[in-house]
Design brief:
Mean pLDDT: 84
Number of helices: 10
Structural class: mainly alpha
CATH architecture: Orthogonal Bundle
CATH class: Mainly Alpha
Radius of gyration: 18 Å
Largest sheet: none
Oligomer: single chain
Length: 254
């Protein structure tokens, strides 16, 4: 397959979507790693996905505002619940997050059980459809991500548990519909983990790993005719693994 104009027309919106997700998920991922709640994004993203599936089950327009409200409402409810459990039982918070993810996954399967396209919907939720990103949606999503970043870097010191979980829920709700559950988790955890021992320019390194992962994975998926989501995950993991193994083990970055 040659690199022609139609291929470029598919790749650039997908790459921009990947950069937008990377922009917000790198700093949030570092915080998640520091708090020791790595699987929170899977739980909240899955809950948001259940909101989307439930809206589809009710017959609502897939791209309508009602679906977005359903997804965000479900994610915010999950964020409030996890804030409460984190305050009450912090020692077992990771286990609670795992239970939330399993229950949400089971609920999604039950909602799709009688849907003839249920398997396809579940696959889209997990792996996403990043290659079919709609360019017309990117400006609005970029604006929302920009607000999230401004709040995070501007007011982070004032955020308590609730503020963090709510902001996290808003970011993940958008991202899971944009790139899928696997890429949400990948972008959140892999760059933060790869730069865990980096004491200088950690953000620059983490952002570079995310951007390179999306670029390499998208190009490879198009030219090798492979599913884009899993290819990006593998590409980012390979780049991050190479960086991690070549980084001296020092005091973890904060």
């Amino acid at each position: 397959m040659s690199f022609d104009a139609p291929i470029f027309g598919i790749l650039w919106p997908a790459f921009v979507a990947g950069l937008l997700v990377t922009a917000t998920h790198v700093p949030l991922g570092m915080q998640v790693l520091q708090r020791g709640i790595v699987f929170i994004d899977l739980a909240i993203a899955q809950i948001a996905g259940v909101g989307v599936i439930f809206a589809d089950y009710l017959g609502w327009e897939p791209t309508g505002a009602a679906v977005q409200i359903a997804a965000l409402g479900a994610a915010l409810a999950c964020a409030i619940f996890l804030t409460w459990t984190d305050r009450r039982w912090p020692q077992v918070q990771e286990a609670i997050i795992g239970v939330v993810f399993v229950v949400a996954s089971s609920a999604a399967i039950l909602l799709l059980a009688k849907n003839p396209h249920g398997g396809e919907h579940l696959k889209d939720l997990l792996t996403g459809q990043i290659l079919w990103t709609n360019p017309a949606r990117l400006p609005l999503e970029a604006l929302i991500y920009g607000v999230i970043l401004a709040l995070w870097f501007g007011l982070r010191e004032r955020f308590g548990r609730f503020g963090f979980y709510v902001l996290f829920a808003c970011a993940v709700t958008i991202s899971v519909q944009l790139v899928g559950l696997f890429l949400v988790f990948c972008t959140l955890v892999i760059p933060a983990l790869a730069t865990y021992y980096s004491r200088r320019n950690r953000y620059l390194k983490a952002y570079s790993i995310g951007a390179l992962g999306y670029a390499a994975g998208l190009v490879a998926s198009v030219f090798a005719d492979l599913p884009s989501g899993p290819t990006i995950v593998c590409a980012m993991a390979a780049i991050a693994g190479t960086f991690f193994l070549s980084t001296p083990r020092t005091r973890p970055a904060t």
